[in-house]
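Renewal narrative, Specific Aim 1. Our central claim is that a sequence can be written position by position from structural information alone. The example that follows is taken directly from our test logs and has not been curated for this report. It begins with the structure tokens describing the chain, in the order in which they were read.
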């Protein structure tokens, strides 16, 4: 089951990173009114990417931290999907392209699969 979690983590982390690249295109710092503009937005991603990479390594080593970080990554996908869906329903123009919507939909599906897989390992 750890192997499935590792692949789920890799897919979900990839989708998160691709979404964040897309977020830079859409100037997400303006959408969420983040301070620091584009530079602050980029700097904010340093600890995020480090945490994602640490989680991947922890899953590969079958560590409890990997399960925790898997659940955090999965939660970020669920929250991200929900927030962007809310913004879209409010008529915001960001993330309306087919690619953006596709990434968000895949992020939701991958997050659900990753969360279920991590919980199954925790309960085993």
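The sequence written for that structure reads:
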């Amino acid at each position: 089951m750890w192997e499935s979690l590792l692949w789920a983590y890799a897919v979900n982390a990839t989708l998160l990173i691709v979404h964040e690249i897309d977020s830079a295109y859409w100037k997400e710092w303006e959408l969420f009114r983040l301070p620091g503009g584009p530079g602050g937005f980029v700097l904010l991603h340093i600890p995020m990417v480090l945490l994602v990479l640490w989680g991947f390594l922890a899953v590969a080593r079958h560590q409890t931290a990997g399960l925790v970080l898997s659940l955090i990554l999965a939660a970020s996908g669920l929250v991200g999907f929900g927030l962007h869906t809310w913004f879209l329903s409010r008529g915001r123009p960001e993330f309306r392209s087919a690619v953006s919507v596709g990434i968000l939909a895949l992020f939701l599906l991958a997050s659900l699969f990753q969360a279920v897989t991590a919980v199954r390992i925790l309960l085993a």
